[in-house]
Amino acid sequence: MTPILFIDRDGTLIEEPADFQVDAFEKLRFVRGVVPALLRLRDAGYQFVMVTNQDGLGTASYPREQFEGPHNLMMQVLESQGISFREVLIDTSFPADNAPTRKPGIGLALHYLRDRSIDWARSAMVGDRETDNAFARNLGIRPFQLRTEQFGGEWDWAGIAHALAEQPRTAAVARNTRETRIHVDVDLDRVAEPLVHTGLGFFDHMLEQIGKHGGFALQLRCEGDLQIDEHHTIEDCALALGQAMREALGNKRGIGRYGFEAEPVGAAFTLPMDEALASAALDFSGRPYFVFDGGFKRERVGDMPTELVPHFFRSLCETAGLNLNLRVAGDNDHHKVEACFKVVARALRQAIRREGNELPSTKGAL
């Protein structure tokens, strides 16, 4: 199936002048970054459809010959760069006409709704105005409002190409209860320094290990009832993080699914930290299960109770749909706890890595 990118013209492909009419060659200027972005999207399988309102085109106030010269030059330049349009849809009505073919109306695009070869889940609309966003909503596709001085917007063409061509796996989860208020953001396809604040310094450091060694962008903020104890904060952070990872993975196509390496000690990712040794084997099977082999002598490491270490991973497994076997041995409890978080993070890095589009399951679903 083919995704379609519907694209506005003025203010989106080319800059829009103060009088809102590109009716002379000297007014023709391309929006920054549009050509490389469209080439990336073309290579990702997108076809392009231009949808533009041209108020009164063909009337005395906007003669067609003044429009066609700059428009044809724009099309020739894009063609010379390997960018072609499946169709160019132009509405020439005035706003007062309330024509169904004028954006945000979808009258000009109705025939696409009958085309079963279109991948509507990946299709999108790029424009510079709210009317373009409304057009997208009326078609049931994702809107991208380009950032401009006139109308605001939050996207540039490079960001749009990243969002659509690379399909970054992101999720934002808010978990609010009487005990905790948590917000988690993850981007499994972007490496960034983790930003974590839970009110528990050592626990923050452990969560940072998951983002850092897991190879993905992680932001987590929690306000919890620490005046009672640490349990709710640590448990709920695990539940929220697991939910975010599960949502970001989506249909799980292309992922490694399993996180382990074949070692002499068995099928596990093994990580040393001084005298401590931890191993983890995990599977994003959709079936939560947790096995822990280890123990701690100290009641706490920093401000984190050691009894909550296995509880954290059990809670993470519940909402992530994760099967995890975790083992740790050593003498220093600080080293052992940190080794647990690091080794799980390294196994996660392997399991979430995307290497294609196949679903790693004979069942057809994960």
Automatic annotation (TrEMBL):
Localization annotation: Cytoplasm
Annotated GO MF terms: histidinol-phosphatase activity; imidazoleglycerol-phosphate dehydratase activity; metal ion binding
GO biological process entries: L-histidine biosynthetic process
Ranges where the record places region Imidazoleglycerol-phosphate dehydratase: 169-366
InterPro entries to which the protein is assigned, alphabetical: HAD-like_sf, HAD-SF_hydro_IIIA, HAD_sf, His_synth_bifunc_HisB, HisB_N, Histidinol-phos, IGPD_sf, ImidazoleglycerolP_deHydtase
Named cofactor requirement(s): Mg(2+)
Active site feature: 8 (nucleophile), 10 (proton donor)
Main location: cytoplasm
Catalytic activity: L-histidinol phosphate + H2O = L-histidinol + phosphate; D-erythro-1-(imidazol-4-yl)glycerol 3-phosphate = 3-(imidazol-4-yl)-2-oxopropyl phosphate + H2O
Gene Ontology CC terms: cytoplasm
Start and end residues of each stretch annotated as Histidinol-phosphatase: 1-168
Family: In the N-terminal section; belongs to the histidinol-phosphatase family.
Stated name of the protein: Histidine biosynthesis bifunctional protein HisB
Organism: Lysobacter daejeonensis GH1-9
